[in-house]
C-alpha cells in the first residue's frame, strides 16, 4: 500500500511541478551553486557532486517529491540520478527547488552511486537565498538567519562525507512532517 501511495505521490509532484531538465539547465544550476557564498568553496575540494536542477514537491497531509539529476566525479559527468521523497504530517502546498549534494571523498561518492541511496528524515541541507541562509531538512525548512560569509561557511559542512545545498525556485509550502529522500543511480 505504501509503495503504491509513494508512486502516486511521486508522479503527482512530477506532473505538478517538475519540468524536464535540459542539458543547459544542469550547467546553469552548477553555475548558480558556484556563485553562492554557501556552496562555492565545495567545488574546489569535493571528490564529486550530484546536481538536480528542479525537484518538484507537493502535498496535502501526505506529500511527495521527484527530480532528475546528474552525477559528476572530479567535474566530469559520470551518470544519472533520480530522487523521490515521501513525507507524512501536516503539509500543504507545492514548491520547486534545485539541489546539489557534494561528496567529500571516494567513500561518500561510492556510497551514493552504489545503487539505492537514502537520506533519512534527519538529513539537513543549507538553503541558499539571495541575502540569507537557512537550515533545512529534506522534509522542510526551518528559519535561521545568516547574512555573513563566515556564518555560511560554518553551516555548510560535510556530514558523513556529504554536504547538501538547496535553492528555492518557486512555490509556497508549509510543512511539519517527517520523510526522507531516496536516490537511484545509473552510470552513463
Number of domains: 1
Termini Cα gap = 33 Å
β-strand percent reads over 45%
Low-confidence stretches: 1-19, 130-154
The shape, in one word, is globular
Report the order of strands and helices: HHHEEHEEEEHE
Helical run tally: 5
| Fraction of residues in H or I helices | 10-25%
Main beta-sheet annotation: 7 strands, mixed
Structural class: alpha+beta
Radius of gyration in whole Å, from Cα? 15 Å
Describe this structure in words.
The protein is an alpha+beta fold and 188 residues long. It has one domain. 24% of the residues lie in helices and 52% in strands. The chain contains five helices and seven strands, in the order αααββαββββαβ. Strands 1, 2, 3, 4, 5, 6 and 7 form a seven-stranded mixed sheet that branches. The longest helix is centred in the N-terminal third of the chain and has 15 residues, at 2-16. The radius of gyration is 15 Å and the shape is globular. It starts with a helix and ends with a strand. The relative contact order is 0.22.
In a few lines, what is going on in this structure?
Helices cover 24% and strands 52% of the residues. It contains five helices and seven strands.
How would the blueprint of this fold be written?
Blueprint lengths: L1 H15 L6 H13 L6 H4 L2 E26 L2 E28 L2 H7 L3 E4 L4 E5 L4 E5 L2 E3 L6 H7 L6 E26 L1
Parallel strand pairs: 4-7
Antiparallel strand pairs: 1-2, 2-7, 3-7, 4-5, 5-6
Amino acid at each position: 500500500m505504501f509503495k503504491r501511495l509513494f508512486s502516486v505521490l511521486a508522479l503527482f509532484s512530477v506532473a505538478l511541478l517538475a519540468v524536464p531538465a535540459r542539458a543547459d539547465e544542469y550547467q546553469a544550476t552548477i553555475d548558480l551553486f558556484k556563485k553562492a557564498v554557501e556552496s562555492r568553496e565545495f567545488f574546489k575540494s569535493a571528490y564529486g557532486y550530484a546536481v538536480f536542477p528542479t525537484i518538484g514537491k507537493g502535498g496535502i497531509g501526505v506529500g511527495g517529491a521527484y527530480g532528475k539529476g546528474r552525477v559528476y566525479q572530479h567535474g566530469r559527468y559520470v551518470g544519472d540520478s533520480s530522487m523521490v521523497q515521501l513525507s507524512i504530517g501536516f503539509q500543504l502546498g507545492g514548491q520547486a527547488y534545485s539541489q546539489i549534494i557534494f561528496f567529500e571523498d571516494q567513500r561518500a561518492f561510492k556510497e551514493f552511486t552504489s545503487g539505492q541511496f537514502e537520506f533519512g528524515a534527519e538529513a539537513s541541507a543549507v538553503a541558499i537565498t539571495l541575502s540569507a541562509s537557512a537550515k533545512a531538512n529534506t522534509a522542510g525548512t526551518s528559519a535561521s538567519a545568516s547574512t555573513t560569509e563566515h556564518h555560511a561557511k560554518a553551516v555548510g559542512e560535510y556530514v558523513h562525507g556529504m554536504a547538501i545545498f538547496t535553492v528555492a525556485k518557486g512555490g509556497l509550502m508549509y510543512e511539519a512532517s517527517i520523510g526522507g529522500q531516496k536516490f537511484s543511480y545509473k552510470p552513463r
